[in-house]
Amino acid sequence: MSQWQELEHKYFMNTVERLPLTLVRGEGAWVWDEEGQAYLDFVGGWAVDSLGHCHPAVSEAVTRQVHTLIQASNQFYTVPQVQLAELLVQNSCLDRVFFCNSGAEANEAAVKLARRYGELHLKRAYEVITTTGSFHGRTLAMVAATGQPRFQQPYVPLPTGFINVEYNSIAAIKAATTPQTCAVMLEPIQGEGGVNIASGDFLKAVRAWCDETGVLLILDEIQTGMGRTGTLFAYEQYGIEPDIMTLAKGLASGVPIGAILAREKASVFTPGEHGSTFGGNPLACAAGYATLKFIIDNDIPANAGATGQYLMGRLEGLKGKFPFVSEVRGCGLLVALEFNSDIAGVVVMACLERGLLVNRLKPNALRFMPPLIIGRDEVDKAMGILEGALADITSQA
Ligand SMILES: *Cc1c(COP(=O)(O)O)cnc(C)c1O
User: How far is the CA of 347 from the centre of ligand 1 (A)?
Assistant: First the structure.
């Protein structure tokens, strides 16, 4: 164990079982450890490094901003936050933006906005319907929203006002809707929950149900947004539009940021009802603007779509070679590989030893969420390493 790893064990709270690797540098789809060993990064800062590590467009924007203005109170106007808000509105179906610092915070704001809307327009309705297997963040209210008991159980009692129902079931959402319901909150693809993809029929039916009942549709695109699924936002592929959308992870290619976007009719906050000290900070918004501008100008979503297709094709090819590979699913560069036994942890370690970083999604599944700028050569390299790792595991079994 290295010096840094020993010190971490001494000083840091024990919230995560880390992999035995200390990363010190990144460039594009590659990272380096303290010994100078290179790794191809298919974790991508946890679906965060949209443009890869230290992309010149982002690093230059941050460098410029860091010498200009880092932070100002939100009682003043600042330029980067307006530029980023304008670009988000011009490239989405939504009309107004609020910035915060993380995904959980964006979802909190979305729920507050929906409750405020309910108070004004839905006879004080306040309940939010969410789905099982979802992930909406780690704050107490978002733990209540997240339909996974393992995140909830240690922290009971949880804030009330959330109802978790089955994913991909319009019947379950209809049955849970009452006069108290102000919103339905969903991920178009459940990332942390297993790369579970909403069916087109389901999302269309949810949209129609929200229109019929007047409740708001909140899409959590924190993991699916910014081009990862092949379109700038995943909702575009479903032919529906949310009333509220949340973003974070890939929005600033690694600089912490969150955002909530809403249609005009749902933008009901009035001064003093919500706020954030750091939210919309010039540094984060300069990184966000540079990221989004590059994504749009270079049609990065198209690359994510095509490269994702190629990656899934290569993974499908593993099925014939390794009988324990059972399923490939995903959209764009958000992809899961499932095994018919609990070998994901072993595979992650075997890949790491060979120079590839992948995520253990579940005991029996891996997730791939590389930078959106990767090409086929990087996929080929990663697949070569993965195949070597799987072959090794086969021979040991
Ligand atoms: C990661 C994630 C969150 C939480 O974001 P944080 O920045 O960790 O608070 C919420 N929703 C989805 C879909 C996510 O993937």
Answer: 25
> How many domains are contained in the chain?
2
**Pocket residues for ligand 1 (CB within 6 Å)?**
102-104, 107, 135-137, 187, 191-192, 220, 222-223, 248-249
275 burial (CB, 10 Å; 0-12 / 13-18 / 19+) is middle
**Distance between Cα 377 and ligand 1 center (Å):** 30
Model confidence pLDDT, tens digit, residues 302-331: 999 999 999 999 999 999 899 999 999 999
Residue 278 burial by Cβ neighbours in a 10 Å radius (0-12, 13-18, 19+): middle
* 50/195 Cα distance (integer angstroms): 18
- Domain boundary at 263, 297, 331, which? 297
Mean pLDDT of 134-138: 98
As a whole number of angstroms, the distance between CA 387 and CA 390 comes to 5
Would you say 183 and 217 are in contact if contact means Cβ atoms under 8 Å apart? yes
The neighbouring-strand residues paired with 329 are 336
- Distance, C-alpha 240 to centroid of its chain: 19
For the segment 151-163, what is each residue's pLDDT rounded down to a tens digit? 999 999 999 999 9
Residues marked as catalytic: 135, 220, 249
What does the pLDDT average to over 73-101?
A: 98
**Which residue's alpha carbon is at the smallest distance from atom 5 of ligand 1?**
103
Nearest to 80 by CA among 349, 291, 368, 321: 291
Q: Is 0.90 topped by the overall pTM?
A: yes
Q: Which atom of ligand 1 is nearest to the CA of 220?
A: 13
Contact 373, 300 (CB under 8 A): yes
> Of all helices (H) and strands (E), which one includes residue 186?
strand 181-186
CATH number, domain at 367? Answer: 3.90.1150.10
Please indicate, yes or no, whether residues 85 and 209 belong to a single structural domain of this protein: yes
Helices (H), 51-102: 56-66, 79-90
Which sign does the torsion angle of CA 15, 366, 194, 375 carry? positive
Query: Mean per-residue pLDDT for 157-170?
Result: 98
Which atom of ligand 1 is nearest the CA belonging to 142?
Answer: 10
